[in-house]
Amino acid sequence: MGMDKRKTSYSTREQAARAEVDIAQQRYRDLAEGIDHGIVWEADESFRFCMVSRRAEQMLGYSIEQWCQEPGFWINHVYPDDRGRVLAVFKKALTGEDQACDHRFITADGRVVWFHTGVHASRMEDQIVYRGLSVEITYLKEVEEKLKQKTEEAEEANRTKSHFLSIASHEIRNGLNAIIGYAHLLADGTMPQEKRAEMYKHILRCAHDLNDLVNRILDVEKIETGRMQLQANISEVFLPEILRQILEDLRFIWIEKGLTVEFHDDLTAPSIRSDPGKLRQIFTNLIVNAIKFTEKGAISVQILHHSQAKEISVQIQDTGIGIPEEDLPHLFKPFYQSGGVVAPVGTGLGLSIVKKLVDLLKGRIEVKRQQGTGSIFTVTLPYDAC
After folding, report:
1. pTM of the predicted protein model
2. How many domains does the chain have?
C-alpha cells in the first residue's frame, strides 16, 4: 500500500516535470518564432542543425529540412570569403565566452545578405552544442557603406578644394601684383605713349582674369547651395546665332594659334525655350577649352536636330591632346583637371559649372575620349527647359 503511494507520487512529480519542460520548450519556440529579423538555431559540433526557427525559411528561401538534414548545409552557404572567420568565432566560443561576428550568407535565389551572428557553446553529455541568434543586418551594412563613401567623397572634396584655394590665392596675388606693378610704372610721366597703351592692355587683361576667377568661384558656390536658378524671363533662343557670336568673339584667339574652326548648322533645327545667358556660358567654356587644349589642327562645332525626341545637340570636337580614360569619371568634378591634378585658374571650375548648368537646363552632356587625337563634347538640350 505504501509502496503504491510512493510510485504514484513519483509518477505525478515526473509528469509535472515533463509538463514544465514542455511548457519551457513551447515558450522557447514561441520566442524563437517571434523574432522578425533573426534566426534562432542550435547545431552540433559538425554544424548539423537540430533546430532552426521557421523565420529562416522566409528570410533565406531554404526549407527547414535542408537546414537540418543536408550535411554541411549552413557552412557551405556562408559567403566563401567569410567562412574562415566564422569558423574561428565558433572555435573561440568553446573557451566559454560567447562570441559574435558579422558575415554574409547566400540565399536560395543567389542574393548575398549580411548577418550578425551571436554564438554560445556548451557541452551536453560529452557533446558540443552551439546555440545562437543570427540577425539580418543587410540594410545597416548598406547604410554604413554609403556613409563611408560619402565621408571619403567629402574628405576628397575638401582636400581638392583646399589645393585649389591655395593655387587660386597664388593667382590672385600674382594678378594683383602685376596690376600694382604696371600702375606704378604708369605713374612715371616720362613713359612713351605706346608703352603706356601696352601697359593699360596688361592691366585690363589681369583684371579680366581676376574677374573671371571670382565669377567662377561664386557660380560654384551658388550651384552647391542650390541658389543658381533659371532666369525668370526664359525666351526663344536660336542656337546657331549664339554659337556664331561666340566663335566671332573668340576669333582672335584661334587665329593667333593658327587653328581652323568649322561651324556646321542644321537648317531643320528650330528655336528652343531656354536661358540664353547660361547657354552662352556653357558653349563659351567648351569652345575655349577646345581651343586651349588644341595646339594644331581644327575645332568643329556642329548642330544636330533630333526631331522625334524634341531635342537639339551641339557637338564640339577638337584635335587636341585628348582625355585619358581614367579621368573620365572625374571630369565634371569641381577643381579637377585631366591628368589628375588641380587645374590652373580658369579651367578647374569650368567643366563642373558646365555640367551643373546643363542639368539646370534639363539637358545632358557627354564626352568621348580620343586620347592623342582629341575629344568630343556633346550637349543635348530639350525644346523647352521649363
Report:
1. 0.54
2. 3
